[in-house]
Design brief:
The structure holds three protein chains of three kinds. By secondary structure, chain A is mostly helical. Chain A has 17 helices and two strands. The two termini of chain A are about 40 Å apart. By secondary structure, chain C is mainly alpha-helical. Chain C has one domain. Chain C has eleven helices and two strands. Classes of the chains: A mainly alpha, B alpha/beta, C mainly alpha. At the A-C interface, helix 6, helix 13 and helix 15 of A face helix 4, helix 9 and helix 11 of C.
C-alpha cells in the first residue's frame, strides 16, 4: 500500500483545473442574469459532447467521418416521435435511439471501412444524406420537411419540458462531465490503445494481431451511441427539429470542425473548441448580420487552424501549461541523448 | 522435431509477372532458417504470403498443423503465432516506445501483466532507457529493435525477419545477431530474410536460396554460398533470364 | 403514358447529369494531380454564378457570351484562393487537405452570401424557357446547351492532357511526382494550373446553370454533394469515369425524383453510390494506385 503522500501530491494542476472549471460552471446559472447566456452555454456544452463523441472515431481513430448528424438526428427523432405521438419520456426513448444508432453505425461501418481517406469521408456523407432523404420521405411518420414541434407538458423532468432553459443547463453539464469521464476511460481502455496503434500504422497494427476493422467498428458504434444520447437531450432543449436542422451535412461538418479546431485526438480539445467556436459564431452573427456570417467565420477559422495550428488550439493551452508548471525532465531522456541514440526533434 | 511450417507448391503472379513459382519448403520448430536470393527473387513476396498480406494463386501453407486459408486474415495469423518485421521499420510514431509494446501485449494480457511483460521485453531488447521516448524519434537501428521487441509481445512461434541487418554497422550487427540468438533461445523459430551474408552464416543453421521466384538450393549457409548455381544467380553468370 | 415519363426523365437526367459531370471532371483533375478531393467545388460553382451575374449586370450580355469574362474571373479567383490557402498545406498530409477544402467550401459559399446578400438574383436569359421538341419529348435549351458545352470542354481537357506539354506534365506529376520533379517538371506550377483548371470548370458549370436556378449561395448545397459522389463512383482520377458517372447520377436522380418522390432524389444517388462502391470499391473506372 502506498503511503498517503499528502494533499499536494494529489492536487496536481492537471486535476485541479477541471474541478475549478466545473465549480464555475455549477455556479454560473445562479449569477447569470439573462437566459441568452444560458442558452449559449447549453449550445456550447452540446457541441462539446458531440465533439467528444466525434473524436472517438475521428480523433483517436483517424477516420474523418461526416455523418455525425445522422446519429444526432436518430436521437432527436426517436425522442420527438415517441414523445409527441405516444407521450413516452425521452429517458425511455434514449436507449432506443442508441440501439438504432448502433445498428446504423454497424451498417455504415461494414459499408465504408474497406475504404480509406476521402473515399471513406464521402461514403459517410452518402449514408447521412440517405437518412435525411428518408426522414423527409416518410413524412407520415416524421412530419417530413415541416419538422416537429415538441409538445409542452408543463414543468416536467420526466418529459424533459421546462419553462426555462436552466434545467437543461444542468442536464447538459451532467452529460458533459459523463462524456469527459467516458472519453478519459476510453483512451485508457484496450480498444483505445488499439485505436492508437491503428492510427499510428494500420498495416503494422494488423500484422501484430490487431483486428483493425473490428476495432474501428467498435469505436464508430460507441461514437454513434454517444452522439445519439446527446442528440436526444439536445433535441428536447431545442423544442423544434427538422430534417435540415438535425441531419444536415452542415451540422456534421460543424461537429467535426469544433473538435478539430479545439484539438483533434485530445480530451479537452473538443470541449475547448466548442466553448470558443460557438460563442464566436454568435458574435459574428451579431456583428456581421444574420445569414451565413457564422459559417463564414468558422470556415475561416478552420482554414487558419489547418494552416497554422493543425493540432488545434489546445496545443496553445498545453504550451502555456508547461510554462506555468514545468515538470522535471525525465532522466531517461537525457541518458539517451548522451548515448547518441536519440535523434533530435525534427 | 515437429514441422512448424510447410509451404507447398506456392505460386503467385502480379499483373502477369510471376513473382513466385511452385515454391516448396519446410521449417522445423526451433530453426533459424535463412531465405536468401538476389533482388527480386521473391523473398518478401513469400513472407507476405505466409503472413497473409498476399493470397497465393495456388499452393498451400500449413502452419503449426493448421492449413491457412484466405479467410485467415493477417491479424488472425498473428494470433496463430506468425509474426514478422518489415524491411522499413513501422513504429507507431504517435506512441512512446513503451506504449508501442504495451498496446500489443494487451491483446493477450490484462493491464498489470501486460505492464510486466512489456518491462521484460524492454529489458531484453535493451530499449528500457528509451521507454518514454516517442518512437518517431528513434534512430533507424533502434526502430528495427523496436519492431522486434513489439512483435515479441505477440508471443509468436514463428518470426519472419525481413532484412533486419540492412544499414547496420558491424557493431550494431553483432548486437542484433545476439538479440536474434536470444529470441531463438526463447523457443521462437526464425525465418531470416537477408542480403548480408555474414549475418546469415553467423546465425542460420540452414539456408534456402530463391531465384526469380523459384526454389534454387537448400543446405547449410556455407554450402549455399559455394554452390555454383547460387553464385551464378547472384552474379548473373551465363543464365539466360527470360 | 408511363414509358413516356420514364424516357423524358431519362433525357432530363442525362442533360442535368452533364453539369454534374463537368464539376466532377474538375474535381477529378485536381484529385488526379494533387491527390486532394476538392470539397469546395460547389462553392466555386456558386462563384461562377455570381461572376456571371456581375458581368451580366455590367455588360448586359447574355450568359453564354460572358464565358470568356467568367473564365478570366475564375482563373484569377482560383489563383488567389489557391495561393493563400491550399498552397500552404500541400505537403502536410491528406487530412489537412480534406479539412482545408471543407473550410474553403464554407468560407467561399458564405462569403458570396455576405457580399451579394441572401436574396436570390437572376441572370436574364432569353432562352430560359425555350425548348426543342423532338416528337413527344421536350429538351430544354438551357440543359441542352449546358450538355453541349460540357462535352466540348471535356474534349478540350482530353486534348490538353494528351497532346500538350502542360498536360503531359500533369499526367507525370499525377503518376509519380518525385520522378516528375527530377525530370524537370515544375510540380508547383502544375499543382497551381491543375487546381485553377479544376475550379474554372466548376465556375463555368455555374454559368451554365444560371438559366436554370436563381443565383444564390444555397445552390452550392445542391451541387456540393452529387459531384463528390460522381467522382468516387466513376473512379477517383478517371475523367471517363467522371463523365459517365455524372450522367448516370443525373439519370438516377431524375428517375427516382419523378417516379417515386422528389424527396428521395438524393437518397437515390446515395444508394447508387453505395451499391457501386460495394461492388467495385475502386469505382467504375478507378485505377487504384495512389488512391486517397
Amino acid at each position: 500500500m502506498t503511503k498517503y503522500r499528502g494533499f499536494k501530491a494529489y492536487a496536481t494542476p492537471k486535476r485541479i483545473i477541471p474541478l475549478v472549471l466545473l465549480a464555475m460552471m455549477l455556479v454560473i446559472p445562479s449569477i447569470a442574469k439573462s437566459n441568452y447566456s444560458i442558452t449559449i452555454l447549453v449550445n456550447c456544452m452540446a457541441f462539446a459532447i458531440f465533439g467528444l463523441a466525434w473524436n472517438i472515431i475521428g480523433g483517436y481513430g483517424g477516420q474523418i467521418s461526416w455523418c455525425s448528424a445522422a446519429f444526432v438526428a436518430i436521437g432527436a427523432y426517436t425522442n420527438y416521435i415517441l414523445s409527441v405521438d405516444y407521450s413516452i419520456s425521452p429517458f425511455l426513448s434514449m436507449p432506443l435511439g442508441m440501439l438504432i444508432s448502433y445498428i446504423m453505425a454497424t451498417i455504415i461501418g461494414y459499408g465504408t471501412f474497406r475504404l480509406h481517406g476521402a473515399y471513406f469521408s464521402i461514403a459517410t456523407i452518402a449514408f447521412a444524406e440517405s437518412l435525411r432523404s428518408a426522414i423527409q420521405y416518410f413524412s407520415g411518420f416524421t412530419k417530413g420537411t415541416a419538422g416537429i414541434y415538441l409538445t409542452y407538458r408543463g414543468e416536467n423532468l420526466w418529459a424533459l419540458t421546462f419553462s426555462s432553459d436552466r434545467p437543461f443547463y444542468y442536464i447538459m453539464l451532467v452529460l458533459l462531465v459523463l462524456a469527459v469521464l467516458f472519453s478519459y476511460y476510453f483512451t485508457r481502455s484496450k480498444t483505445g490503445h488499439y485505436l492508437n496503434c491503428i492510427k499510428g500504422d494500420e498495416v503494422a497494427a494488423e500484422s501484430l494481431g490487431i483486428e483493425t476493422f473490428m476495432v474501428k467498428l467498435r469505436a464508430f458504434q460507441i461514437s454513434a451511441m454517444m452522439m445519439s444520447i446527446a442528440g436526444c437531450f439536445y433535441a428536447s432543449f431545442l423544442t423544434y427539429i427538422s430534417p435540415l436542422s438535425t441531419c444536415s451535412l452542415d451540422l456534421s461538418i460543424k461537429i467535426g470542425v469544433v473538435a478539430i479546431i479545439g484539438g483533434i485526438g485530445t480530451i479537452w480539445g473538443p470541449v475547448l473548441g466548442a466553448f470558443i467556436v460557438i460563442p464566436l459564431i454568435e458574435l459574428a452573427g451579431i456583428l456581421l448580420g444574420e445569414f451565413g456570417s457564422g459559417n463564414l467565420l468558422y470556415g475561416l477559422m478552420l482554414i487558419l487552424i489547418v494552416i497554422f495550428k493543425p493540432k488545434g488550439l489546445f496545443t496553445l493551452l498545453t504550451a502555456l501549461y508547461s510554462k506555468l508548471f514545468p515538470e522535471n525532465k525525465r532522466p531517461e531522456a537525457s541518458e539517451a541523448v548522451k548515448e547518441g541514440h536519440y535523434e533530435e526533434a525534427s | 522435431m515437429k514441422k512448424l511450417l510447410e509451404v507447398n507448391d506456392l505460386s503467385i503472379s502480379f499483373s502477369g509477372i510471376k513473382a513466385v513459382q511452385h515454391l516448396s519448403f519446410e521449417m522445423e520448430q526451433g530453426e533459424i532458417l535463412a531465405l536468401i536470393g538476389p533482388n527480386g527473387s521473391g523473398k518478401s513476396t513469400t513472407v507476405n504470403m505466409i503472413s497473409g498480406t498476399y493470397t497465393p494463386d495456388s499452393g498451400e501453407i500449413t502452419f503449426d498443423g493448421h492449413l491457412l486459408h484466405k479467410k485467415n486474415s493477417v491479424a488472425k495469423r498473428s494470433h496463430l503465432g506468425i509474426g514478422r518485421t518489415f524491411q522499413t521499420p513501422k513504429p507507431f510514431g504517435n506512441l512512446t516506445v513503451y506504449e508501442n509494446i504495451f498496446a500489443i501485449a494487451l491483446q493477450k494480457y490484462g493491464f498489470k501483466e501486460a505492464h510486466d511483460k512489456t518491462k521484460k521485453i524492454l529489458e531484453m531488447s535493451r530499449l528500457d532507457c528509451f521507454s518514454s521516448i516517442p518512437s518517431s524519434k528513434l534512430s533507424i537501428e533502434k526502430r528495427k529493435w523496436l519492431d522486434l521487441a513489439r512483435v515479441l509481445a505477440t508471443e509468436p512461434k514463428l518470426l519472419m525477419m525481413d532484412e533486419v541487418m540492412a544499414g547496420l554497422n558491424p557493431n550494431e550487427m553483432d548486437e542484433s545477431l545476439e538479440f536474434v540468438r536470444e529470441i531463438n533461445r526463447m523457443g521462437i523459430s526464425i525465418l531470416f530474410i537477408e542480403h548480408v551474408m555474414r549475418a546469415v552464416v553467423s546465425v542460420c543453421t540452414r539456408a534456402i536460396v530463391l531465384n526469380e521466384g523459384r526454389f534454387l538450393f537448400c543446405g547449410t549457409p556455407s554450402d549455399a554460398l559455394n554452390d555454383p548455381a547460387v553464385i551464378a544467380a547472384y552474379i548473373g553468370g551465363e543464365k539466360v533470364k527470360c | 403514358m408511363k414509358t413516356w415519363v420514364v424516357f423524358q426523365s431519362l433525357i432530363n437526367g442525362l442533360l442535368s447529369g452533364g453539369v454534374y459531370s463537368l464539376v466532377a471532371v474538375g474535381i477529378t483533375i485536381i484529385f488526379g494531380v494533387m491527390k486532394m478531393v476538392n470539397f469546395a467545388a460547389g462553392a466555386y460553382l456558386v462563384w461562377g454564378m455570381y461572376f456571371t451575374w456581375l458581368w451580366h449586370t455590367v455588360t448586359g450580355m447574355s450568359s453564354y457570351a460572358l464565358i470568356p469574362f467568367v473564365l478570366a474571373s475564375m482563373i484569377v479567383f482560383g489563383l488567389i484562393t489557391f495561393k493563400s490557402t491550399i498552397r500552404q498545406v500541400i505537403n502536410t498530409g491528406d487530412t489537412s487537405l480534406i479539412l482545408i477544402t471543407v473550410g474553403l467550401s464554407f468560407f467561399l459559399q458564405n462569403l458570396a452570401e455576405t457580399i451579394f446578400g441572401t436574396s436570390p438574383l437572376t441572370v436574364q436569359s432569353k432562352i430560359k424557357l425555350a425548348s426543342l421538341k423532338l416528337g413527344k419529348f421536350t429538351l430544354g435549351y438551357p440543359r441542352l446547351i449546358a450538355f453541349g458545352v460540357m462535352l466540348i470542354l471535356v474534349l478540350a481537357v482530353h486534348v490538353l492532357l494528351n497532346k500538350t506539354l502542360i498536360g503531359r506534365s500533369m499526367r507525370a506529376t499525377a503518376e509519380k511526382p518525385e520522378v516528375a520533379k527530377m525530370l524537370g517538371v515544375n510540380t508547383d506550377r502544375v499543382y497551381t494550373f491543375s487546381f485553377i483548371l479544376g475550379v474554372t470548370l466548376a465556375g463555368l458549370s455555374g454559368l451554365l446553370v444560371t438559366p436554370l436556378y436563381y443565383v444564390s449561395a444555397t445552390v452550392g448545397n445542391t451541387f456540393r454533394i452529387a459531384p463528390l459522389m460522381v467522382v468516387v463512383l466513376g473512379g477517383m482520377g478517371s475523367i471517363k469515369g467522371a463523365l459517365i458517372g455524372g450522367m448516370l447520377v443525373g439519370i438516377v436522380e431524375q428517375l427516382v425524383s419523378t417516379l417515386i418522390s422528389a424527396d428521395l432524389g438524393t437518397a437515390g444517388i446515395c444508394i447508387l453510390f453505395l451499391v457501386v462502391l460495394y461492388l467495385r470499391p475502386r469505382g467504375l473506372f478507378g485505377k487504384g494506385e495512389r488512391a486517397a
